[in-house]
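Researcher: Next entry: Regulatory protein VirG (Thalassobaculum litoreum DSM 18839).
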Amino acid sequence: MPPKNPHILVVDDHKNIREPLAKYLGENGFRVSMAASGAEMDTVVKAASIDLIVLDILMPGEGGLEICRRIRETRDIPVILLTAVASETDRIVGLEIGADDYLTKPFNPRELLARIKGVLRRVNSLPRQYSGIEAGQIGFGTWVLDVDRQVLTKESGGQETALSTVEFRLLMTFLDHPKMVLSRDQLLDMVSSRAANVFDRSIDNQVSRLRKKIEDDGKNPEIVKTVWGGGYMFTLDVVRR
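Model: Predicted structure:
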């Protein structure tokens, strides 16, 4: 269930947007904090438990897309992006880097309120996600994953294989749910903490990239199996060290 009185952080450099929006959300049952920049956001996040961030894309200095990417590298706080530019590219990039939803200015506050509630419901109904704070090593098959360094090595001491952030999060999701069939929608939500209504084949591309690194034959995978009509299943036993 979503937390009672969820804590929303509004990050926008425009005071005339930030403050009325915070007031409106407060009147609708949320606890609200505000920040005018990425640096101010960092201070708030360190000091309080934030349930969702409403983040403006077009800000001076560190922009919203860069901030969203940085959030997603270390935290699973849901993010809804706001922008004054109705750019399809920005929308796609924002969702690909981990935003949960996207809204173009000017917007009706009631629509944002509905989207916030929808994201919180979805996020809190998901299976457990990789939290980004685990440490140590995880073994599967002939591979050992160094969680701290996001690097794979063969148990026999082979060459190290680095993983991208998305590949690492996808692998951790599989390792957290071995021998379970995970649908594409579930994987999109668990890996990226975002809505799964972008193009649902984007997760197929990420799985394909991961397979090239961990499978002996990426075209005939044995570790990450495709379940037709269902999604994907990680087939190996997992050993945490």
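Model: Note for the record: The radius of gyration is 19 Å.
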